[in-house]
Amino acid sequence: MHSILFRQSQAGDAEAACVCLTPGWVRDGPHLSSRTGLGGSRRIQRIPPTCFETLDEDGMSKSSSASVSRLFLLNSWTYCAIKPRIFEPRIFDKEATGFGPIFEEEPLDTVYAEDSPENKISMNCRVRANPPAIIKWWLNNWEIKLMEQPDDHYSLVGGNLLITNPDKAKHAGKYVCVAKNVYGTVFSKEAIVKFGYLNQFPTDEREPVNVKEGQGAVLLCSPPSRYPSEVLFRWIYNDFPNFILPDQRRFVSQSTGNLYIAKVEASDVGNYSCFVSSPVIGKSVFSMPIALIPQIEKEEKRYPADIRVKFPKTYALVHQNLTLECFALGK
Q1: How confident is the model over 108-149, as pLDDT tens digits?
Q2: Confidence at residue 306, expressed as pLDDT on a 0 to 100 scale
Q3: Dist CA 119 CA 220 (whole Å)
Q4: Spans of the chain below 50 pLDDT
Q5: Are residues 281 and 212 in the same domain?
Q6: Structural domain of residue 257, as residue ranges?
Q7: pTM of this structure
Q8: How far is CA 156 from the centre of its chain?
Q9: Which residues contact residue 269 at a Cβ distance below 8 angstroms, ignoring those fewer than 6 apart?
Q10: In degrees rounded to 5, what are phi and psi of residue 169?
Q11: Is residue 63 part of a domain?
């Protein structure tokens, strides 16, 4: 914003000098700034001596689009500093209407399933600013040149970054949304894009498990490799979706996926398949069936207690929910 200084002569000359100064060169009080005086004027204009008589009640000049900032006397001359109204929005004065970028939505960490039928990732970024902000995106501390280098994978929809046909080698990493206008620049929090997967179980046949009635049995899940590692383990009994419900005799470890049966009964005979679900990527797989064959025990025997599942040393926050697994065999 420029400040404009009007000088009206005592003798009522036909014209008076108008000097256009930059902010800080005119201040309240009876003196000009000693560091510049009038020596720093940008240009000289000629205005009629009646310029101060054509102001309306609100201090608006009827002959120009400007408002009075201050009036004072200096060396018996009348000075008037005015604010031009040609800048939109106002940046420096108290009546400024603009503001810097403010995030209304920032990108979030995303895990994309490698074999997902939806072949795109959307990284959201919504910003409020006046004037509107320019949105840019960074990947692993490098700017994504959407305008200079057209890309078959990246596109900008509003402020959102759309990644089509994502590729792990190219698109995994840390993304940051950057918003900028004349008031400043803001950076979103980092959003990490990772690629999730859940491999299939091997198709090899599983060995049957023979166990005497009354004894304990363990059916091994041996889950396939996966990311993220957090999955849900269940077991199918004979046919899908007939899932085993854990009870006092049967227990499914959520650490290993193994099925533990404390006391095998004749009714337990059948085929068992380990079922693994990844809630993050929305995928499930199950193993080849394991045949459980109970054998009749002629004489009932007793067995010492044997803890098969132990929980490790664990740390937890106050009020945090925690699950500890423990399973024992014996009779």
Answers
A1: 999 999 988 889 999 999 999 999 999 999 999 999 988 766
A2: 66
A3: 35
A4: 1-88
A5: yes
A6: 199-301
A7: 0.60
A8: 16
A9: 292, 293, 294
A10: -65, -30
A11: yes
Residue 167 has which token pair? 């590729």
Backbone CA torsion sign across 94, 97, 100, 102 = positive
Determine contact, residues 154/161, Cβ cutoff 8 Å.
Answer: yes
Answer with the one of 27, 51, 84 that is the final residue of a domain.
84
- Burial of 3: CB neighbours in 10 Å, binned 0-12, 13-18, 19+: buried
330: its two tokens: 């014996």
CA pair distance 253, 219, nearest whole angstrom: 11
Do 194 and 234 meet the contact criterion of CB atoms below 8 Å apart? no
The total of structural domains in the chain comes to 3
Q: Which of 180, 197, 214 is the last residue of a domain?
A: 197
* CATH for 105: 2.60.40.10
Q: How far, in Å, CA of 103 to CA of 217, rounded?
A: 56
pLDDT in tens, 186-240: 999 999 999 999 999 999 999 999 998 888 889 999 999 999 999 999 999 999 8
Rounded to whole angstroms, the Cα distance separating 206 from 290 reads 5
Together in a domain, 179 and 214: no
Q: Convert 169-185 to b/e letters by CB count within 10 Å (16 or more is b).
A: eebeeebbbbbbbebee
Residues 62 and 75 in one domain: yes
- The position carrying tokens 């609100």 is 58
Tell me what pLDDT residue 321 has: 73
Residues 6+ apart with CB under 8 A from 237: 243, 244, 270, 271, 272
**Inside any domain, residue 330:** no
Verify that 80 and 103 share a domain, yes or no: no
**Omega prior to 246 cis, within 30 of 0:** no
- Backbone torsion region of residue 169, taken as left when φ is above 0, otherwise alpha when ψ lies between -120 and 50, otherwise beta: alpha
Give dist(CA 269, CA 264) in Å, integer: 9
Residues 313, 302: Cα–Cα separation, whole Å = 31
Residues 6+ apart with CB under 8 A from 322: 314, 316
